[in-house]
Design a protein that fits this description.
Blueprint (H helix, E strand, L loop, with lengths): L18 H59 L12 H4 L2 H4 L15 H7 L22 E4 L4 E4 L12 E2 L4 H9 L1
Antiparallel strand pairs: 1-2, 2-3
Length: 183
């Protein structure tokens, strides 16, 4: 049987005379290994950061392209600039009718709005919120007035006064209300 000390790991010659130099050499190898490991780790970290920044840079580039496109569209949609006309072409543009004196025309008399028309256009406030009366061609109140928000209709006279017992859900029967009011 072989002696356990005769194993392949123990056959290496041992230096017993210079133990200080082997320790220095081991420290150098360890330092170089550590330095190489740090350099590789640094390169891996740099590559990782560049990869992350590449995504951000591509995003910034796409945003920049989009902004340039919007800027181009804005200038394309802008109204055209006024161009200067040469003064020698100005007489050609002048209208002869402008130079002639026109007789002053009398303006058409303004028709005053009736109470119904003023309420319908919103010039005068109405007691009920979101209600606008309906007027006929003369500006009088239509016989039937309806408030759509409440689904109510009622009958009125020409001045807008409500006729008694004419309130109804939906369309009102203003023929009966007028007959009842006349009696």
């Amino acid at each position: 049987m072989s002696d356990p000390q005769d194993g392949p790991l123990l056959r290496t010659p041992s230096v017993t005379t210079s133990t200080g130099s082997s320790n220095k050499q081991a420290l150098k190898v360890t330092a170089l290994t550590l330095l190489a490991t740090l350099l590789i780790a640094g390169q891996a970290f740099t590559a990782y950061m560049l990869f992350n920044q590449k995504e951000r840079l591509s995003t910034l580039e796409s945003h920049s392209t989009r902004l340039e496109e919007l800027g181009r569209r804005a200038t394309a949609m802008r109204s055209p600039m006024k161009m200067a006309l040469p003064m020698n072409s100005l007489p050609l543009l002048m209208d002869d009718a402008v130079t002639e004196k026109k007789a002053p025309s009398t303006p058409a008399p303004k028709k005053e709005l009736t109470q119904c028309q003023q309420e319908a256009t919103g010039l005068v406030d109405v007691r009920m919120h979101s209600y606008k009366p309906t007027c006929d061609e003369n500006g009088d109140y239509e016989p039937q007035q309806c408030w759509d928000a409440a689904n109510k209709c009622w009958c009125v006279d020409k001045s807008g006064a409500m006729l008694e017992n004419s309130m109804a859900d939906g369309p009102a029967d203003c023929g009966k209300a007028k007959v009842g009011a006349l009696e």
